Give the backbone structure.
Amino acid sequence: MTVDSAQLAAFVPAVLALVGSPGPATLGLAAAGAAFGFRTARPFLFGLLSGVALTLVLVGTGVVGALLAHPVVGPLLTAFAACYMVYLAYRIATAAPIGDTRGSADAPGFVPGFVLAMTNPKAYAVFATLFSGFTVIPDDIVRNALFKGLLIMGLLTVTDFTWLYVGSALRHLFRDPRLSRRINVGFAVLLLLSVGFAVYA
């Protein structure tokens, strides 16, 4: 197995830039951290990472490309994704203020995180770009795909934990319920804007 060091050197920063930049998943994590706290939002993160792993498999094997190319299935999946993002933004915007005991009960768990990953339009575009744009192991197609998939997953896990931590750090800075509400609404609006941009792009 021969690793192309030049391709690898270009691949790693590309992954960090694409998966770590603001988007529906990263902003959703930051918003969940700010609204509910790091510990309470961890099931949401684990669900998201599980969904990302499945998304990587679906993109890497070409299943997603075939579905999105279908004249009926493609638009339906896009519409479902947009509707779910709106629902998630609503959950974040209406989260109980900091210190309210309803916060833990209202927090999105594993399943919402999993669904977010599976309906994130940015993820499909990013993974397709990373899989098709770089050949890290030129002499073995299967190992090349597996290597890139594992590296993407590892780097994405680090960046997602970081986004959740940053969001949860904001939670401790704002104890005023009115300010807390504004922060949650602001994150929800940013989430919706990122979804609109991802769908448009």
